[in-house]
Sequence to fold (288 residues):
Amino acid sequence: MSDTAASLQRKIASAAELESVVRTMKAMAASSIGQYEKAVRSLDEYYRTVQLGLCACFRQDTQGEAPETAATGAVVFGSDQGLVGQFNEQILGFVEAQLQNLPGKKTVWAVGNRIQSRLCDTDLQQGVSFILPNSITAITPLIGQLLLEIESQLANGGITQFYLFHNRPEKGAIYQPVSQRLLPLDAVWRKDLTALYWPSNNLPQVLNDPEQTRGSFVREYLFVSLFRACAESLSSENASRLAAMQRAEKNIDELLEDLQRNFHRLRQNNIDAELFDVVSGFEAFNAP
Fold:
């Protein structure tokens, strides 16, 4: 059934309204990317300071490796909202590939409703789920909840090693899935840490209570690692949404152009038909 001029006008108006919504979402995504990237950059120097503090604490520490059969906990950052392309599917596939090589029981903690719903379609055991923050200020309370859950699992002995999975913004691509082993702070991790360049010629020395100092630095290390992972994931999510909105805007522009072209052609055909009727009537009226 061919469109009428009125129906084409309604479609044009609907497409224009949708384009306005898409442009608003694109602007919001671009703004969010900026604030999350700024948060990550602001953590870099502090993270370096925490690393140096741990370096000083662990120089004389010689604790052994975690057992190979240790139960594993995985914190996975996904999204709460849609319009992000393959954001959740890509990180979940990465998690499955990484965890299948680890021995022992594996439990996954999902941060984000979308990633949680997709975990139901896998064989991975689900643990506690968390709501993804929608602003920079909401990240800190989430990290507090995660740290409490981690401490609880460590105290109960249910899980002895933790991994962190999230999408990280990358140049030349929107994002890339990455992983990080949070705990335990084993001998390999400590060897790499103590190899860091110390920024002065004076050897570091831990004053007062070394155990308390080390515990404080470890908590800060976990906090910064989780905070940065969350911020990078949110930045990647908004970058994916921005790309989706740019594609949608392009498609809407093409649709509008096609609708307007059809509308003008139909309008011109109606005008031609009316002129033909006028000419035909005039000729019939003046016929002998």
